[in-house]
Request: fold
Amino acid sequence: MSNQAFVRTEMLPEQHPPATTVGVIGWLRENLFSGWFNSILTVVSLAFVYYVLSGILPWIFQSAWNADSLNECREIFIATWGSTEGHACWGVVNERWLQLLYGFYPSDLYWRVNLTLVVTLIAMAPVLFSDQAPRQLWYVTAVYPFVMPWLLWGGSIWGPLMAAAGFGIGYLAYRVLVPVAGSLVAVIGAVVLPILWWFALAGTVAGAIQGIIPIGIESVESRQFGGFMLAVLLGIVAIGCSLPIGIVLALGRQSDLLIVKALCVGFIEFIRGVPLITLLFVASLLLNLFLPPGTNFDIILRVMIMMTLFAAAYMAEVIRGGLAALPKGQYEGADSLGLNYWQAQRLIIMPQALKISIPGIVSTFIGIFKDTTLVSIIGLFDVIGLSNAIRADTAWNGIYWELFAFIAFLFFIVCFSMSRYSMYLERKLHTGH
Amino acid sequence: MTTLTDPPKESFRLSMLIYDTRYRSLTIQAVAMLGFMLLAAWLINNTIVNLATLGKPIDLGFLGEPASYDINQRLLDYNSRDTHLRAAFIGLINTIVVAVLGCITATIIGVLVGVLRLSKNWLVAKIMTVYVEVFRNVPVLLWIVLAMAILIESLPAPRDFRGENPEATLSFFDTVAITNRGVYIPEPLFSNSLGNIHLFGDSSLRFDVSLDLVAILIVLAASIFAIRKVTARAARIQAATGVRPKTWHVNLAIFFVPMIALLTLLGFHLGYPALKGFNFQGGTHMRNSLIALWLALSLYTAAFIAEIVRGGILAISHGQTEAAGALGLRPGKTMRLVILPQALRVIIPPMISNYLNLTKNSSLAIAVGYMDITGTLGGITMNQTGRELEGVLLLMACYLLISLSISAVMNWYNKRVALVER
Reply:
């Protein structure tokens, strides 16, 4: 009986997939022309993209860079392309970009702003990339809060040094008092003594030392601050200070202590219920009323305080979301290990809650940074305020696209990198599957 | 043998206030309360002393004084002899107008962009991504100022509409005039108008309600009520017999016939803008400031709403769609009965908080001179009367009122749709 095998014993060689389903054509078919509706959408979108690009690209590149006024730009356009429409007059950016970046900061002192930026980046490195940056950079971060204002505002070096000395006094008080009077008195001492030092003594001592050993750099007044630098300055301060305050507020709102909770809820809801512009009105008009008679401190500092409070309220809500999203088992686990409240928060709760709320935290940061432009309404010359001044200048009367495109570009770069960084951080901290 | 004895009765010692967790919370709260009250007392005392030095005790009397400034964009009657309170009220109405307009357009654009960002079409999805990123990452104030600049600088002046061969013509079939002084749109007019009701007499909060509008709203509500009845009846019949009667023609008739009859009765017609002298007359005049603010706020907020909508739809697991398919639902019904109700639960709370943001951002109107409550009460009134403290506090109170009522609505909705867990 012959063995009739109907089963093929050897494999056929693999065939190539049809040419229409792979490569460029396959991708196009799948993503752009997968049906009549999609095809129509694609064609319409292509037409739209062509329309936009055909307007923008010549506008950007067929432009005048060297001109002192809008009229000069128009003359160049007529001479070169025969029409004034559809060409950018980058002359305004070319002439005013330093002002848009630094405001009215003295031009021979620009190096100080640049140096501050460099120091800022170095100080931020260990915070942002804690696993890659060398540990010594933390020292830069520690001294940054004292170096930054000194570099920007200038003046005697002793002021910032004496401010820093307050922390030294606090530490010293703690170490001295712990063996003598117990930890509670030590903590109280470590809080009270530096406050007394800052409010009562630091100023006089700094003045006295300055009289004996004058070390300082040229001081710059607050009203000379402006431009994009002001936005970055306000943004950094508000962002840096709002996170710790926000964490405290969020914990207060989640706590069982009735009065503490009520105070936190009241503060958060009040700040979130009013627009930032009203808080800036408070900063510019009312804050001096609330303080002892004769107090008159810097407008930029007042704005910083209000923006920090504003940011902190939003931050608190974001972090509260993270705290609420943690499973109850985490709290119970921490309790069962015998950790006290602060240990549990520091070791178990906060690391996870902050990780969950990273997207929210970063989008609050971005929002705050964008909101720094509002200071133009209370009369500070940030980029928008400067752009209004430039547009009121007779030489540049009637220009708007070029200026606003430049400003939008500055903000876009910073905000977009922040959102990309948050994605990087989420990936880095992702410990699930 | 051991005997059980009562544990020794602990006497209360002062140190237990700090070291005993049973009492420590009381201590902390007492200290917090004390600190807060001291701080508040200090601030209030400073304020009183400062105000006394300035000779400006707290006094709301300025609200009754004549405002003597004009508000060019308004819904209610107002003239410069009216009081500051009336000006603030007009401003509040203006805030609400721009907020409502902005919320509507932002929702439409946002939902469209959010859905299109999920499109399988690569190009469309990318274009929408670019839109979202560009609008989200640039300050809203910049968009507002830019929109204002574009409107003023690039639109034709009213005189360009004049002459035999005008440089500019009316848009939308000769009904809308878009000029650099604002947009003139047709206004609804009633030749047999029912008149107005005057509320609150001659006070600063006087308010005219058009009876025509009330009639239209009543008829609309009645039609919608009837349509719901018809639909409910159809559902009952379907449940009993399995066959759903056709209702769309009845519904259309119920909706349109009474409305058209009412409008004919009232003599409804449109008043079109026409060029007279140096400017357009007739029609409703929407000033550049309103248009710029509206446009910028809606485009900016739409970018955020788009992300919320996208996130909401992505949050519904694919299994839901598949299960609905297994039950035999068509794609349309799957969307309406399965996906949307679940996605809305995710979408609506952040959406409302974005409406709230839009309302608060509308205070930036002051940058383009739109007279909202910040422009009237927080702007000109405050500058004229020098009453900063009262002005800012009232302004904050107004915004707080708006915010708290919006969050009350949100909390009510959240409670209604919350998943009931163990």
Q: What stands out?
A: DSSP finds 17 helices and two strands in chain A. The two ends of chain A are 59 Å apart (CA to CA). Strands of chain A lie at 155-156, 216-217.
